[in-house]
Amino acid sequence: MQASQLNALLASADCLVSSAAMDAAYARLAAAIEQDWVAHIQDEVPLVLVVMSGGLVAAGKLLSRLHYPVELDYLHVSRYGEATQGGVLHWLVRPRHSVAKRHVLIVDDIFDEGITLREITEACLRDGATSVRSVVAVDKDHARKVSNFRPDYVGVTVEDRFLVGEGMDYRGYFRSLNGIYALNETLK
Questions:
Q1: Is the pLDDT of residue 165 over 80?
Q2: 16-182: which CATH topology?
């Protein structure tokens, strides 16, 4: 796509959550996470796993607000690639650090259907994590969620539309937008 096409697509988008509202959500999330860590993990250093690529923006905004020591790693799984609908989960990169006997926090951009986040959580538990919690910047409000699984921490909940910004993308574009936008044009 050309920049002019992308700019036109963004110009017709609806801003669902402002940059300021997202900043407030990240501050609230950081406070809740730190409170839980202080209460439950004593003197241990948690392992933060960032889900690439969408979780990168959320992690950067969240981690800069944490005042608790963490060890940072990442993983890369994909159900979308550059498509607009999810498929089979593919593990592209596993974490370098062992999750065994660790308190793990998984950071991702969105909780849509929940398949990806549930599978990552289950994989960490199978690999011996002491505990696994998850945080997402956005929870999309609809009934197509996996059963018996929810993220532990949610920044904001938004309507069921095609979202970009704060790590979420359209074919690799718009991840870096501050705030949450819903694209209005029919996407192919």
A1: yes
A2: Rossmann fold (3.40.50)
